[in-house]
TrEMBL record, chains A, B:
Name recorded for this polypeptide: Methyltransferase domain-containing protein
Sorted UniProt keywords: Methyltransferase, Transferase
GO annotation, biological process: methylation
Cross-referenced InterPro entries: Methyltransf_11, Methyltransf_Superfamily, SAM-dependent_MTases_sf
Length: 274, 274
């Protein structure tokens, strides 16, 4: 984050709530198999508003977690979120640092494990970030990376306007220096960044009328809300008209109604520092 | 299949081999959790060249399997394939019938279970087919449906030509009356066709350099081979130029080389006749 990339989703209160809802819905899917041993030193690189931190802390209460972010404001929200979700003893154990991922204030090999979730998609130089992170990981330590890929979104009924709206989000994020199609690149990125034992697996959200909590929690309140959230930017950038944008968002909402279906793939990667 | 839809992939020897390779690579992913009890009466509707039949027979050796297809030639190949993959006793137990899915020569409720794999995508009236199949299923019996969805294909490096080539296959199949994006519709289709307890789950193939057998077996020899197989049709239909088509196929092959990744989602549905 030495390259100051504007966070495409913004920093509003609604956005913080969206990230919280998203993490709760997806927690089981993304985090259920991440457990760090008691006493292990874990770095969460790019904790944002703490949406993933609360799940890390709940799953591995005995670890020593250090969470860093480039934004002082996000760190304050993350700290409050962890305090609200954990007992006083647990939340007091988390170390919070405002820091730049490319210039971390930690000695070489300071951590047993690294955790990076929904961060690389916002960076102009994700490969450089992974290589910089490797320095603070001890040899034999693991890195876990979780990212989405907006190219994985498809749905019924299909809608050209909805696909276009997603395309506008992808483009805005690309123009901000990020890559919302990064999930498919995790394996080559980690390999090129010098990690061993790279293992990447898809983690798919599929929602239809038989899974109403996912329809509401993911299709509507996570994905559609995320796309809707960049409407003003898409209009300001002249990517679309108000009418077409509204058709796109309506098309996404339609997939959350009876007979609709929605598919989205996250990728979870693990690798080891040689 | 009362509506004679040309089978978009053709009936060549190469195509039969492709379907065999595909089934072997995917067998674990798609079929591992399908087991029918000894003595149960199972109908495989649309067995084609028997690519799935051999796995059904291997997984549930005690069932009474009846496999039907509209093509006499495919049935002959299916029978030979099962004979080559099973012992004489097992292969002799399979009943083969040339029949129309919309007009099956079986009494109401003749079967305990129905199995339908890679069939609905080729039908002009998949909803009508599912409703017709329901008649021969006993109340309380199950139907299992497996279909792909070509809209789920994404890959690294991304390639506009490769995406266009896939789009041409989707269009050719649509013009032949089929729907290669049908996976996302299984839940509403089964519900509308009068089944209960509809459960649909994605079955995702993700291949990268760390999984060379999948890269070869799926990315190259299944998916890329399938797209490449409709090149002559795409050119004859004027959908593309030879140069663009070759760029598209080269783009798909590139995803099977070092640093490439490939993602594709099948959908597996189960439901019950009320």
């Amino acid at each position: 984050m030495t390259t100051p990339v504007p966070y495409v989703h913004g920093y509003s209160e609604n956005e913080a709530r969206r990230l919280g809802d998203q993490a709760d819905t997806l927690a089981e899917l993304l985090h259920a198999d991440t457990r760090y041993p008691a006493g292990s030193r874990v770095l969460e690189a790019g904790c944002g508003v703490g949406a993933q931190t609360v799940h890390l802390v709940a799953s591995s209460p005995g670890m020593h977690l250090t969470s860093v972010d480039i934004s002082e404001e996000s760190l304050a929200q993350a700290r409050a979120r962890v305090r609200a979700h954990s007992d006083a003893h647990t939340s007091a154990r988390v170390q919070w640092h405002r820091a730049d991922l490319f210039d971390l204030p930690f000695a070489d090999g300071s951590f047993d494990h690294l955790f990076v979730c929904f961060v690389l998609e916002h960076l102009r130089y994700p490969l450089k970030a992974l290589a910089a992170l490797r320095r603070v990981l001890k040899p034999g330590g693991t890195i876990t990376v979780i990212e989405g890929d907006h190219g994985s979104a498809f749905f019924h009924p299909d809608s050209a306007h909805a696909r276009a709206a997603i395309g506008h989000l992808v483009r805005l994020q690309a123009e901000a220096g990020g890559d919302s199609l990064i999930g498919r690149r995790l394996q080559p990125l980690l390999t090129e960044a010098g990690y061993d034992g790279v293992t990447v697996r898809p983690r798919t959200v599929y929602a239809d009328a038989t899974r109403p909590a996912l329809v509401e929690g993911f299709t509507r309140d996570t994905f559609t809300a995320m796309v809707a959230g960049v409407g003003a930017q898409a209009l300001a950038a002249g990517l679309t008209t108000r009418a077409d944008w509204e058709r796109g968002i309506a098309g996404l909402h339609r997939t959350a109604q009876a007979g609709g279906t929605f598919h989205y793939t996250f990728f979870k990667a693990t690798a080891v520092r040689p």
